[in-house]
Amino acid sequence: TFTPKVEDLRRAGMVCTLNPDLKNVKYYALGPWENNSDRHDGMVAQWYTTKVGEMGGEYVKPQTMGGREQLRELQLTDNQGRGISIQTQGDVSFQLNPYTDEQLMRTQHMWELQPQPFNVLHLDAAVRGIGNASCGPDTLPEYFVPNQKLTYKVRITGI
C-alpha cells in the first residue's frame, strides 16, 4: 500500500532488476499485444508466452513500451525451466524490458538502445494513459495516476 506524493506521475508501483537468463515469459493478463490503462479494446485476459525484448512496440523514438494490464500471474524462466512465478491481487500492470526508463528517455533512436546486463521489471498499481500533448491531445483526466492510496499484493515463488 502506498500513496503517490507527486503530481503528474507516469506510473506508481515498484521496479526491480532481474537476471537476464530469465528471458522466457509466460503471463496471464491482457494481451497479446502491448496495452495501457486507456487501451483495452481488442485485448483478452488469458495465458500468453513471449520473450523479454519481444514485448515492446516498434517506435521511432524509444519510450515506455510493452505494458500489460490486469496481471494475475507472471512466470519468468531460463532455458532449463528454472525461475520465478509472480502472482498478484488487485489492479496490477507489468512491463519487462532489457532497458531502464532513463535509457528510454535519453535515447533518440531505437537502434541506439543497448540492452542492460539485467532485465527491468515494473509492477504498477497505476499507469498514466496514452497521450502527453506532444503530438495530439493530452491524457484524459480519468487515466492520470491518482493521488490516493493504491494497494496490491504480490507473491513471488520459485519455479
SSE blueprint:
Blueprint: E1 11-18, E2 24-31, E3 44-51, E4 73-77, E5 83-90, E6 93-97, H1 101-106, E7 119-127, E8 152-158
Antiparallel strand pairs: 1-7, 2-3, 2-4, 4-5, 5-8, 6-7
What do you see in this structure?
- The protein is mainly beta and 159 residues long.
- The chain has one helix at 101-106; strands at 11-18, 24-31, 44-51, 73-77, 83-90, 93-97, 119-127, 152-158.
- The strands form two sheets. It has a five-stranded antiparallel sheet, with no helix packed on it.
- The protein is globular and about 45 Å long.
- The chain starts with 10 loop residues before the first strand and ends with a strand.
- The mean pLDDT is 91.
Describe what is shown at a glance:
The chain is mostly beta strands and 159 residues long. The chain has one helix at residues 101-106; strands spanning 11-18, 24-31, 44-51, 73-77, 83-90, 93-97, 119-127, 152-158.
C-alpha end-to-end distance? 27 Å
Percent in helix: under 10%
Helix/strand-derived class? Answer: mainly beta
Strand order of the largest sheet: 3-2-4-5-8
Which key terms come to mind for this protein?
single chain; mainly beta; 36% strand; globular; 1 helix; five-stranded antiparallel beta sheet; 159 residues; three-stranded antiparallel beta sheet
